[in-house]
């Protein structure tokens, strides 16, 4: 029995390592430096994600960061799922890429909050789920005007959306993908603890609000 289990564990360990290293690529830092916009970690909130990159005044850099941060989650999940023909391998690679974005080895484990990578993972795992979660974000952002609150609500509802009995569009999702959605949602809430505190105090900046 041990001989049968060991290769599977070893394979998943390699998949996780590859996903983590891919997810660790800090595109926000790389892009802003390459474009001569400075180090995004010294701007605004210091976060490496697209929202903070936008504070450089370069919408093109923010869009590129958004797409690449989402794309690394997509790539990790799809490559692993294709190579090993396994939803579990895809989920492990995707989860590891998500961890890599949050805690990148290249930046001493100080990374982003994972929202873009989260939506990339959902789209790659089950595109209807990704679209629905994205729609929840858009609705919440429109109603409440808080990007962080929209991300929190959207991530929290994603696992429930994954359980919808919509076989025609691939729902409910497999157990590994459901576990991935829950895992990522929990980490998003943990990484947004400062935003949650500001929301409770009424101090969180709204979308489009200008700083005094």
Describe the structure.
The protein is mainly alpha-helical. 69% of the residues lie in helices and 0% in strands. The longest helix is centred in the middle third of the chain and has 26 residues. The chain is globular. The N terminus is likely disordered. GO terms for molecular function: glycerol-3-phosphate O-acyltransferase activity. Its main location: membrane. Belongs to the PlsY family. It is found in: Cell membrane. This is Glycerol-3-phosphate acyltransferase.
Number of strands: 0
- Major sheet size, sense and barrel closure: none
Strand proportion, as a percent range, falls in: under 5%
Output the radius of gyration.
17 Å
Distance between the termini: 65 Å
Percent helix range: 55-70%
**Sequence stretches where pLDDT stays below 50 over 5 or more residues:** 1-7
Q: Kindly state the mean pLDDT as a whole number?
A: 92
What is the structural class?
mainly alpha
Shape: globular
Total helical elements:
10
What layout of secondary structure does this protein have?
Layout: H1 2-23, H2 27-34, H3 50-53, H4 59-84, H5 87-102, H6 115-125, H7 127-144, H8 147-161, H9 175-191, H10 193-201
Organism: Brevundimonas albigilva
Membrane topology: Multi-pass membrane protein
Keywords: Acyltransferase, Cell membrane, Lipid biosynthesis, Lipid metabolism, Membrane, Phospholipid biosynthesis, Phospholipid metabolism, Transferase, Transmembrane, Transmembrane helix
């Amino acid at each position: 029995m041990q001989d049968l289990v060991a290769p599977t564990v070893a394979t998943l360990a390699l998949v996780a390592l590859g996903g983590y290293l891919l997810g660790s690529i800090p595109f926000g830092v790389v892009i802003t430096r390459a474009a001569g916009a400075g180090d995004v970690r010294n701007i605004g909130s210091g976060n490496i994600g697209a929202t903070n990159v936008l504070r450089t005044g370069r919408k093109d850099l923010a869009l590129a960061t958004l797409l690449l941060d989402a794309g690394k989650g997509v790539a990790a999940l799809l490559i692993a799922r294709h190579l090993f023909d396994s939803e579990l391998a895809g989920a492990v690679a995707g989860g590891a890429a998500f961890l890599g974005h949050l805690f990148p080895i290249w930046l001493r484990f100080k990374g982003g909050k994972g929202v873009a990578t989260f939506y990339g993972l959902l789209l790659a795992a089950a595109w209807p789920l990704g679209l629905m979660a994205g729609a929840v974000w858009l609705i919440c952002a429109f109603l409440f005007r808080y990007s962080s609150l929209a991300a929190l609500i959207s991530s929290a509802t994603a696992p429930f959306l994954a359980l919808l009995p919509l076989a025609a569009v691939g729902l409910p999702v497999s157990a590994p993908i459901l576990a991935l959605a829950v895992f990522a949602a929990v980490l998003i809430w943990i990484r947004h603890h400062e935003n949650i505190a500001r929301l409770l105090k009424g101090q969180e900046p709204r979308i489009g609000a200008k700083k005094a």
